[in-house]
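Minimal example, chain plus magnesium ion.
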Amino acid sequence: MAKAKTVFVCRNCGFESPKWVGKCPSCGQWNTFSEEAVVKTSGITDTIFGTGHSVPVKLHEVDYKSQPRLDTQTGELNRVLGGGLVRGSVILIGGEPGIGKSTLALQVALAMVNYKVLYISGEESVQQISMRAERINRRNDNCYVLSEISLQPIFNHLQQMKPDILIIDSVQTLQDENLESSPGSISQIRECAGKLMKFAKETATPVFLIGHITKDGTLAGPKILEHIVDTVLLFEGDQHYMYRILRATKNRFGATAELGIFEMLGDGLREVENPSEVLINNNNEGLSGIATAATIDGMRPFLIEVQALVSTAAYGTPQRVSTGYDVRRLNMLLAVLERKAGFKIATRDVFLNLAGGLRVSDPALDLSVIAAILSSGVDKPIAKKMCFSAEVGLSGEIRPVTRIENRIREAGRLGFTSIMISGAYEKINMPGKEHIKVIKVNRVEEALKLLFISKE
Ligand code: TYD
Ligand code: MG
């Protein structure tokens, strides 16, 4: 028998090479090549049901509003999708194992009671799915489950059942029998995702694909999948905390800046509509090393607690440990603190932590980081009900941040009585009468002097 033709494919970007190579010439990743059987991919002219007739229409006659979005009955998901589910769209939900992707998908399936939902799992038996449904404690008489990994039977069921919504858990377990390669290989993922995309467009059925993330935080077979689907949602969070963030990194039907916040409870995911209330702890008042920042992630302002611990280094090199905040940025702020405020930090350990296990990259956190470190260093609590929202520059200047009005309003709404911001704003438009005092500062030295003075 002739030897089957094989090709080496990069698991990251799908680049093909006749020989094995250590470094991908296309995406630059190391050790990502694996051998796969050569496949003839189906051409664009094939259709799944043989009914793919599209007709050109005049652009100005297209009425996008006549296609209403489906309500997923999950406010946080609707928000990330850009206002609900678009018919015929393919949404990839990526995340590490155990983060809650299956829970989220099943919860949405059970919440959309007015639609016929088909949940296909290649990872779990229908009994396991039923156990999870029992835990979530919701019921949708129109929700069907199927444990299957082969594409052909799946399409047969789809043709018979005509579900309104399809969920595939996960895309890495799918297998097209016409291909020789194993499930999870690049050619399988590409082919299966492509066919499901075609199904979604031809039948106007929204499809959720669940995808695993590799250890280094990228989707397995990422670039290829990202190009195929309409929307990529990443489900992230720390396994040891309950909070989960759903973030859109690509969305053909909405903004990518949106994020949804959930909390994993014993009976499923709870939507967190008001993140500030869970991220700041009112019992911490009067403790040193704690500062509250008014931040914006995506489109949403919320307040988050920054905790710092400064202690004498036990061993030679002092440690700089940061959870949720960029450690290089922390090092930069420490240098600013040392140079501009004369705060001696070289022989001390610094630990920094953001509440709830969240990761925030908003530069507006800078001033609160500095405040928390100083507060811990001198062991004095920061003034009651004071919060911060400003970036700190290399020469110790306090810089303005975006959408300051929203931040001030959110701080005022949560009962803060003062907020420290940059003095560089010309005018701040605050429509309502916020009972919050705005403290403007221009330099770190100036800010640090005001930290412990209560404005109440
Ligand atoms: P799961 O949805 O299976 O994660 P994924 O599909 O992303 O791999 O859920 C993972 C974790 O969530 C699991 O450790 C159990 C926990 N969990 C709860 O805490 N509460 C619940 O109601 C459910 C269903 C799961
Ligand atoms: Mg799962």
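The pocket of magnesium ion (ligand 2) is lined by residues 101-102, 123, 169 (CB under 6 Å). The first helix runs from residue 75 to 81.
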